[in-house]
What we know:
Keywords: Signal. Residues 1-18 form the signal peptide. The chain is mostly helical and 171 residues long. It has one domain. Helices cover 85% and strands 0% of the residues. Helix 4 (55-86) runs antiparallel to helix 6 and helix 5 runs antiparallel to helix 7 (133-170). The radius of gyration is 18 Å and the shape is elongated.
Amino acid sequence: xxxxxxxxxxxxxxxxxxxxxxxxxxxxxxxxxxxxxxxxxxxxxxxxxxxxxxxxxxxxxxxxxxxxxxxxxxxxxxxxxxxxxxxxxxxxxxxxxxxxxxxxxxxxxxxxxxxxxxxxxxxxxxxxxxxxxxxxxxxxxxxxxxxxxxxxxxxxxxxxxxxxxxxxxxx
Length: 171
């Protein structure tokens, strides 16, 4: 869990220090690493036979699976943004940066998907009371990592938008 949170923090800090276009490829690579780390934790959790004996756990795992599929949608949104930035040859003009940022942020994949992630974790956490304490700890460690990532992704979108607006007003 700490690796996922640490990777998320590095990812967000790297993006905060980056210009909108120059380090976007690096940010996408970091996101892919983070997504795979979350997937690895989810696989380990799903293979735990003690947890699979409980209906609540099955529900929780299906919610986490939905969360992971949302990460796939978020990655697709990153890929779309990357294509927009790669389509500007040479140094992009302020107008190109603004258009790319607006197209990227208007997709609304981020807002709606992050909102759904937060709903998933709220619902799932309510179901945990029926699990044995040891199982609760295992499930919560993964859930907290995923939930933390959702919050960091929200922060990332805000940073990206701020940086894009800053680049267009300063150029």
